[in-house]
């Protein structure tokens, strides 16, 4: 039996049988590819806490975020509580993370006075990274920041911070005039530039900050799910089935590695942009 | 006005076509950013830190457009 007849036999068997999935898939009886939709991002709550008529649902993302936060707190307490002059193994890891944020983000972007914001940026980076990295941790495998509420909440923290810093360091009115009228341009340009600058600094910044993180994690999780589903969907006792399934599996492994990189990068970009916003509030643009 | 007839029709997933269109601009933009960034690093390796940071910043701002294009069909899909 040649390869082509094997393939043909597989195809016939797949289209004839009513249950065409070798491994039962909860997608119903139709044989089409059960492509994952946005539904995979909603979970039913494990338990609900009602306080004063307000319901708090403990869904998977919430539980993951709590576990991750507790882990981060415990880890950094253990690392930094009794620092030694000659750091041990764990302390070196913690200090490497700290100097990475201090030298690579705070001092590089904000300058000397950036040291004041290192604790904030440090917490922000590791919190966002923790939210993201749940996406590739086995058995959890859900990036918490692919629920838009998390990035939005973080953006809601950052927005008042840089607005307030700008008004404090440049003056409540001067902050907006500095923002809208950067010096050294021909007068008519300001007609167009001033409203654009105002909208982009006040409205677009926090919105894109939240959407960038959310959309990256959303897209990444969907991509991983598509190949994971395809691995199970394509498997059948035929050559093409095994090849397709194996290829999907390899792709999902490669994409998991790619996602690990993207998750760290997005956490870094989120922190970097927060630092840039703080920096432009501290000094007017020249 | 009777002659207003259907000349072309798109069937199937409009969202994927929308994403394809939304990816053109950011695709060109990200190519320019990293191309020029690598060139800058090659010419002045000692400025690597500053160049990399600005490169990633530009990448983040450009990439946001493609991602909004990706998410929009899910959000406004039906």
Map the helices and strands:
The complex is a heterodimer of chains A (286) and B (78).
Chain A: H1 3-16, E1 47-51, E2 54-58, H2 60-80, H3 89-110, H4 118-133, H5 149-170, H6 172-180, H7 189-234, H8 239-282
Chain B: H1 14-43, H2 48-75
Helix pairs in contact in B: 1-2
Order of helices and strands of chain B: HH
Query: Quick check: average pLDDT of chain A?
Result: 85
Give the H and E element order of chain A.
HEEHHHHHHH
Q: Based on helices, strands and strand pairing, what is the structural class of chain A?
A: mainly alpha
**Per CATH, what is the topology of chain B?**
F1FO ATP Synthase
The biggest beta sheet of chain A is recorded as:
2 strands, antiparallel
Which stretches of chain B are poorly predicted, pLDDT < 50 over at least 5 residues?
Answer: none
Instruction: Please give the alpha-carbon distance between the first and last residues of chain B.
Output: 31 Å
What is the CA-based Rg of chain A, rounded? 25 Å
Q: End-to-end span of chain A in angstroms?
A: 76 Å
How many separate domains make up the residues of chain A?
1
Read across the widest sheet of chain A, the strand sequence of neighbours is 1-2
Helix content of chain B: over 70%
* Helix percentage range of chain A: 55-70%
State the shape of chain B.
elongated
- Strand residues, percent of chain A: under 5%
Give a short summary of the structure:
The complex is a heterodimer of chains A (286) and B (78). Chain A is built from 8 helices and 2 strands. Chain A has 286 residues and is mostly helical.
């Amino acid at each position: 039996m040649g390869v082509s007849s094997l393939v043909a036999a597989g195809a016939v068997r797949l289209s004839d049988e009513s249950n065409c999935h070798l491994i039962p898939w909860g997608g119903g009886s139709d044989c089409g590819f059960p492509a994952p939709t946005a539904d995979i991002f909603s979970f039913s709550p494990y338990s609900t806490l009602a306080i004063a008529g307000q319901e708090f649902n403990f869904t998977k993302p919430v539980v993951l975020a709590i576990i991750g936060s507790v882990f981060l707190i415990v880890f950094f307490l253990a690392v930094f509580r009794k620092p030694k002059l000659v750091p041990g193994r764990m302390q070196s890891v913690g200090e490497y993370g700290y100097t990475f944020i201090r030298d690579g983000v705070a001092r590089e972007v904000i300058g000397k006075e950036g040291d004041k914001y290192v604790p904030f940026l440090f917490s922000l980076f590791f919190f966002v990274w923790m939210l993201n990295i749940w996406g590739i941790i086995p058995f959890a495998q859900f990036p918490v920041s692919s629920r838009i509420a998390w990035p939005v909440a973080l953006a809601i923290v950052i927005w008042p911070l840089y607005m307030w810093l700008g008004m404090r360091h440049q003056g409540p009115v001067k902050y907006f005039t500095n923002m809208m009228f950067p010096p050294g341009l021909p007068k008519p340009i300001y007609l167009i530039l001033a409203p654009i600058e105002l909208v982009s600094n006040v409205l677009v910044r926090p919105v894109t900050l939240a959407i960038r993180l959310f959309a990256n994690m959303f897209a990444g999780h969907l991509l991983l799910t598509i190949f994971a589903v395809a691995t199970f969907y394509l498997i059948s006792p035929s050559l093409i089935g095994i090849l397709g399934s194996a290829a999907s599996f390899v792709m999902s492994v490669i994409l998991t590695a790619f996602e690990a990189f993207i998750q760290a990068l997005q956490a870094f970009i989120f922190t970097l942009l927060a630092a840039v916003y703080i920096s432009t509030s501290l000094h007017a643009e020249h | 006005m009777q002659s207003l007839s259907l000349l072309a029709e798109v069937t199937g997933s409009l969202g994927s076509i929308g994403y394809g269109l939304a990816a053109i601009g950011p695709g060109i933009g990200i190519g320019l950013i990293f191309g020029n960034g690598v060139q800058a690093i090659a010419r002045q390796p000692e400025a690597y830190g500053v160049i990399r940071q600005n490169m990633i910043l530009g990448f983040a701002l450009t990439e946001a457009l493609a991602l909004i294009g990706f998410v929009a069909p899910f959000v406004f899909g039906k």
